[in-house]
Amino acid sequence: MPEVGSNGTGGVDGQQQIPSGARGYDGFGGRIGRTSAESTPWWKPETKAPAGAPNIVVILIDDMGYSDIGPFGSEIDTPNLNRLADSGYRLSNYHTTSVCSPARAALLTGLNPHRAGYGSVANFDPGFPGLRMELADDALSLAEILRANGYATHAVGKWHLARDTNLAPGRTRDSWPLQRGFDSYYGSLEGLNSFYYPNELIADNSVVDVEEYPSDYYVTDDITDKAVARIKSLRAHDADKPFFLYFSHIAMHGPHQAKPEDLAKYRGRYTEGWDAVRRNRFDSQVEAGFFPPGTPIAERNTEPGYDAPPWDELTEEEQLRFARYQEVYAAMVDSIDQSVGRVLDTLDELGETDNTIIVFTSDNGGTAEGGAAGTRSYFSQFVHGPVSSDWVRDVPHDEELIGSEKIGVHYPRGWGQASNTPFRFYKGQTYAGGVRVPFLLSWPAGLRRADGDTGLRKHYSYVTDITPTLLDLAGLETPTHRNGLPAQERDGVSIADVLRDAAQPTPHTEQYAEFGGHRGFYRDGWKLLSLHTDPTRVDDPQWQLFDVESDPAETADVAHLFPEKVRELAEAWDRAAWHNTVFPILNDRKAVQRRPDERRLAEPVKILAGTPTLERYRSSVLIQYRDFTIDVATHEIAVGDEGVLVAHGDPHGGYVLYVEDGRIVFAVNSYGRVAHTSAPLGNGVVGVQVRAEATESVRWNFTVALTDAAGVTTDVATLDDQFQLVGMAPWTGISVGVDARGPVIWDLRERRGTFRFTGRLRSVTYTPGPVRVPEPVIQEVEELAEAMAD
After folding, report:
1. pLDDT digit string, tens, across residues 576-594
2. Is 648 among the catalytic positions?
3. Contact (CB, 8 A) for 55 and 243
4. Mean of pLDDT over the chain
5. Is Ribonucleoprotein there in the keyword field (predicted)?
6. Which terminal Cβ of the chain has fewer Cβ within 10 Å, N or C?
7. Is 555 found in the same domain as 514?
8. Are 651 and 748 spatial neighbours (Cβ–Cβ below 8 Å)?
9. Residue in 180, 140, 112, 136 with CA at minimum distance from that of residue 1
10. 247 and 254 in contact (C-beta within 8 Å)?
11. 753-758: long-range contacts (C-beta < 8 A, 24 or more apart)?
């Protein structure tokens, strides 16, 4: 099979007539004479898939735990996923990585995550091989392989395999979807996003320049519309060409937001609490044959920082609010199922459901990022601890707003453990709660179940197995090279034989795991684990050993009974770590280190009127942890001129400078708490300045000044002691002359819409000043931001 990127070659009849050096004829397979009458035409053969090749749809969910769908024990309504399970297969012992970017890289390449370059999330770049956060030039993607086999390839939804510094114009797109084998892409390159006001959407290789989203916008519906449209459009142009659809949902990542009609469906359904939900889900799993009767369920996590209290010990107020958080989560799972239903309906209408392989799974387990008590102020949740104790991590809001577009919420980690029933721990840890997730596969035409086969498979498998399994099922070849380089050999193995015959042994017998110092190693039913809690002992793991054949929930540590097995598996982990470029394990400030050339992003920038919204990360570098000055240059602001001069952020945090009713107004949204200052505008104003003075306590003191036609600048208002926007806030970038996308201040949006400035705006210049926040505080905030960005 030709390599990806090659043009193929063919002979040229009558080469003696072609002068040497006329390279334009190279590879031509016909005859070339001096005239067409003396020549024979030739056309390069079109690459076509084998006759009857199946369509392939991979639906990947973000941060959804093992028990969150009906086929895996959930009470949430998932009729479309039930349909897939009824016709297909459930893998009850499927494993993934503990966070998102590594899982996506492993899924799409078949390479172990560190070998693929993603030992962590695609935001930072510590400068080591296993943490480069870019796909290597010799790493073939599933999309590239399928396109080389004659498939149409489309991706929608979350990507998160490109570093955030490469999301801006002019940066490399080497790890963007279209450069990795997809014919089209629509979605978010980020690790998370708002469901009502995405900070930035990408169509193919370009930013979608959205100023205002429709009133009924919801991102899950949007990406589903695009997925369905891709299928319909292909069939309108080509009746036979098989397609690969990589449908990667932004849900279930926080901030959690649900449509009102879905939320209403689950109102009041979680008053019994997480302990009862866990028990009910586990009973359903045992009844379905996932685990034999008598299998121990993990008790609530009790380790500090991972613990979840008994539901009955919560106050009535806490129970009411915490139940509402889970209602939002359930509504979002329901929305995903509806999305799956729309894809199935489209395939049904085309008569192609039977010959479509559909995979449904999650990138990692349910998360604990909501903390012990959950939050109504999602972005504050991750910075209040390192900053100071008086920061409000959960800005109070009307309980009726939970789940709405106005705030970003996340459930407490007690619901995260319910999500991961019956396992321990969460996303980010190598225990089963972080890495064992649901997996469905359906292909009625090619994998019809035998009589009496329930479709349940208990064999160990891993995320790297998806690509080889799909290629094996479809009977497709893999190119040997990519762009002239020998392609890396895959780590994953096909489990197609296991799907066809439950009596077959698993071909995947061992697997290492590592994230953030947490370690794991599986071999033949034994699992070695270490929870990393002490930065000074990152390379001194405190190993625990579990017999996961009899104890799948990892409840009984038997390391003291089998010290030789611990030693054997620890040595195996070490060998695997070296082979897969896991080392070095980060234990200092390099954990959040970025490339030195990124320092230029903190240089002053002049943004002309009419410039599209700046990318989020570029915008944040101009202001975070530092002094900064914003200089707005206008032609003389006339009486009656009004509107936004500059806006940065959205409902989760930001600031906005605007003119209204003859006054200059500066407002700051500190993770949901809003403060204003204003002053009369007066006559002859040609410039407005905002100066931010940062403090070591991670606050800003703001001064607003006006400049007249004579060039005299006068301070007119102050706003002191405002919480800095750090970590992942502001989530939406800088807009000039309009409050684009998500509103910084809700009452302003409701009064005036996006409030485009009616005067003659020339430019806005940002001048970053010195960083004032101590380095240890910055490092801790950035480490938390890295963890929540995935």
Report:
1. 999 999 999 988 766 677 8
2. no
3. yes
4. 94
5. no
6. N
7. yes
8. no
9. 140
10. no
11. 753/212, 754/211, 754/212, 754/644, 755/642, 755/643, 755/644, 755/658, 756/643, 756/644, 757/641, 757/642, 757/643, 757/644, 757/645, 757/658, 757/659, 758/640, 758/641, 758/642, 758/643
Residue 598 pLDDT exceeds 90: no
Helix, strand, or coil (residue 268) = coil
Collapsing DSSP to helix, strand or coil, 252 comes out as coil
β-partners of residue 693 are 701
Which of the following is catalytic: 95, 114, 154, 160?
A: 160
Residues in CB range of 525: below 8 A, 6 or more apart: 547, 548, 549
671 and 549 part of one domain: no
Per the CB < 8 A criterion, the answer to whether 298 and 557 are in contact is no
Alpha-carbon distance of 424 to 554, in angstroms, equals: 7
Residue with tokens 């200092």: 588
The yes-or-no answer on residue 114 being catalytic is no
Q: Which of 95, 100, 508, 648 is catalytic?
A: 100
pLDDT at site 9: 41
The percent of residues above 90 in pLDDT, for the chain, comes to 87
- Check pLDDT > 70 for residue 712: yes
> Which of 567, 588, 609 lies at the terminal end of a domain, its last residue?
588
788 pLDDT above the threshold of 80: no
Domain that holds residue 199: 55-245+335-366+433-508
Entry pTM: 0.96
Question: Is residue 108 in some structural domain?
Answer: yes
Distance from C-alpha of 208 to C-alpha of 230, rounded to nearest angstrom:
17
Q: What is the DSSP string of 631-685?
A: EEEESPPPTT--EEEEEEEETTEEEEEEEETTEEEEEEEETTEEEEEEEE--SSE
- Asked if omega into 412 is within 30° of 0 (cis), the reply is no
